Amino acid sequence: MTVLFVLAMFLVFALIDWALSRGEVKVAAPAHAHAPAEDFVYGFQLPADRRYHPGHGWALRERKNLVRVGIDDFAARLAGKIDGIELPQPGQWIRQGQRSWKLFRGGSATEMVSPIEGEVLEINPEIVKDPSLLRRDPYQAGWLMTVHVPDEEGTSRNFIPTDLINGWMERVAEKLYARQPELCGAVAADAGEPVDDLAVAFPETNWKDLTAEFFL
Asked: What is the pTM of this model?
């Protein structure tokens, strides 16, 4: 009788453990089923799966020591309808925070700094052929290059901390809108989105000077 009682209790505990295990799986699964949410600050898109540099470049880690690089939505809209882009060549070493590529518009050129340091492995040939991709889709089709980054930990220290990204973009947007207050009124922080060519809103400002003010 005692043996049967012990076996029955063992079976009950096993069933409870099995049920709890099923419950844990059901709760945990949705967390892996959805892609990272995309955030918008003052109408500017900031996908949560990227790391951002103060110079408005983004970095997306694809695997160990391999990082895809591009520019953020703010930079793409500020650069606007560019005529061309000059990227570093594969095999070239680029340094974090140093000028690494050029954007051309109307006979002027502006430079942007790299968000990471390493050896360029590949450049996006599509964006060289069609620079408008940078403005139309800066986070996907408009990527710039892939880079081999030997010191990922050291490089990551110079990214904007994740919990400070929204505040950083708010300050950047407010700095821009301070130059043209009516632009802010047309694009409130909680509604609408900025025009895709912000330079048009500043006809009296030299495009090169305007972009240099924000691109470091």
From this structure: 0.78
